[in-house]
Amino acid sequence: MIGVGLLQNKNHLNPIKKDIDVNSPGRLVPALTFMFGLLLIPQSAHAESLLRMTDHPLAWVCILIFTLAYMAVMAEEQLKLKKSKPVILAAGLIWALIAWIATGEGVSHDELHQAVMHDLEEYAAMFLFLLVAMTYINAMEERQVFNSLRSWLIRKGFSFRQLFWVTGVMAFFISPIADNLTTALLMGAVIMSVGKENPKFVTLSMINVVVAANAGGAFSPFGDITTLMVWQAGKVEFQQFFVLFLPAVVNFMVPALIMNSFIETSCPVSQEDHTKIRIGGIRVCLLFLATIGLAISFENFLGLPPFMGMMTGLSLLMMFAYFLKLKGLTSSRKVSPMRDIGGDPDVFQKVSLAEWDTLLFFFGVIFSVGGLRYLGYLEIVSETMYLGIGPTWTNITAGIFSAVVDNIPVMFAILGMNPDMDTFQWLLVTLTAGVGGSLLSVGSAAGVALMGTSKGTYTFMTHLRWSWAIALGYVASIGVHFLING
């Protein structure tokens, strides 16, 4: 989850302390975790260029704009307005107001340009990485990989309730190795394929996957960028993170057990013919694994940003699609992502509108929150809370706050403050920041991605209806942490 800017600007990671070395040698970090965890890293970088004009009237207008934009996102289901539209508008308005403020304070256009381009650099890295992942998902779907898995699950006689648990448990144990976003995309594709005629099953299963994926990354030092940051800062030793396993399990199990009783015990409708993976489908899956390996190798051994490995892996998919085309093995009965990749130079032509909505939503969020960071708001919030209400309640609140802002700027602000906390408290904030994003569908990359791929079935409001159950899991996981680790 490391973006280009992090690799190139390691001396500017921390606005207050200079002893946090995210590029320290000896780390073994999966590239997928690196890329998606730093989606919102611009908020914490280049601190020496912060404007710090939080008391300016126009700065308060920026807060109002951001709030209204998020209200529009929350009302997506009622407004029938794609979630990307309000946040992109908010990003443009916020930075226009920042430019107006900065000009009045004597800030040069070059400095403003630098701040915006840093955000763009991070977004571009995320965009390319995510687009490759989506393209592979589309290719596997075209080769009937997910339909074949669905058919296999149905033939095994799993009921909807059993499928709910299978996908959830798989998400919990895959995300510490990969990342919550890719895990959610994979499990989401299976859920949509199995339960497309059962909207309630799709909704509850996707909520379950989001919670499971976020919880699964919380107990591994390289399972989420927040755990990585705490580890690299020397606040918690490598092996100490695993004491969060039981709290993470509880965080996943409590809402899952509550939702379990609302899942039908019936089985998906069987199909007469058994769907099989098309020729080349297994090799596409292997290429996807090889692409992940390339991303890891590019970052760990070559010092290159992971998206370079992902793009190299995309070229392998293109060449393989070309091979299938030469052999006459591409699908001709409908528009095929594999055929487009192999024969059409416009690789992105068949990316669905929902996927573009997801990518553009990330753009709006990154630049909106990046603007608020540039004004100095995150720094002030962090200082006020730790000095005002103390570490325990601040760390618990940080998890709730991360459901709206994202856990990355929250954790960077906390590390920047460098509060005097023991290992227990650092583990607490690692847990809460990791799982707090599950409280809202927009609180994590997993939730945002599934909203974009569920064709309107899983939305902000459908997730919000079960936030109370997720909150119970959040509270229970904190209680377990106090019980066994306190």
Explain how this protein is built.
This protein has about 475 residues and is mostly helical. Helix 3 runs antiparallel to helix 5, helix 12 packs antiparallel against helix 23 and helix 14 crosses helix 15. The chain starts with a helix and ends with a helix.
Give the SSE order as H and E letters.
Answer: HHHHHHHHHHHHHHHHHHHHHHH
Count of β-strands: 0
Structural class: mainly alpha
The portion of residues forming beta strands comes to: under 5%
Q: What gross morphology would you assign?
A: globular
Characterize the biggest β-sheet: none
- From the N-terminal CA to the C-terminal CA, the straight-line distance is 31 Å
Radius of gyration: 22 Å
Assign a percent range to the helix content.
55-70%
How many helices does DSSP assign?
23
Uncertain residue ranges: 1-48, 332-354
| Mean pLDDT across all amino acids | 77
